[in-house]
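Fig. S4 source data, part A: sequence.
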Amino acid sequence: MAGTLCSIESSPTRRPPGRDDRSNRSLNAEWVEITNDSRRAVNLDGWTLADEDGHTYTFDHYRLNGRATVRVHTGIGRDNRTDLYQDRRAYVWDNHSDTATLRNHRDRFVDEVSWGYDRDHRGDDRRHRGDHRGDGWRHGGDHRH
């Protein structure tokens, strides 16, 4: 059986400088991408995506195809294969620093990405955590689940 790998591939887009008007368009410009790097589809039903303040989005009846990415937007919209919507009326992700954490349906850690805390050698202020707590998930590489 091929391994399954889901990861948070990018931190949320930063809202453009200026007024945060809480318009749906502005809310949907804030998003996180989840990528399945394996060849097999992953059933994300019951998985969660959360920020440091405990705002949590729960995936409902969603299957992420192999080698596919889904963008999870903050605002209101119609879910489809490549875009999901949290249907919120307020921003979730902090522009200055935050952490997006992905957990599976058993509440096991899958991946997380943080931004705004420190800069790596490229000047990128995001960081991935790679320990994945021995639950069969790893960021990068091939593995079995």
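Fig. S4 source data, part B ends here. The chain has a mean pLDDT of 78.
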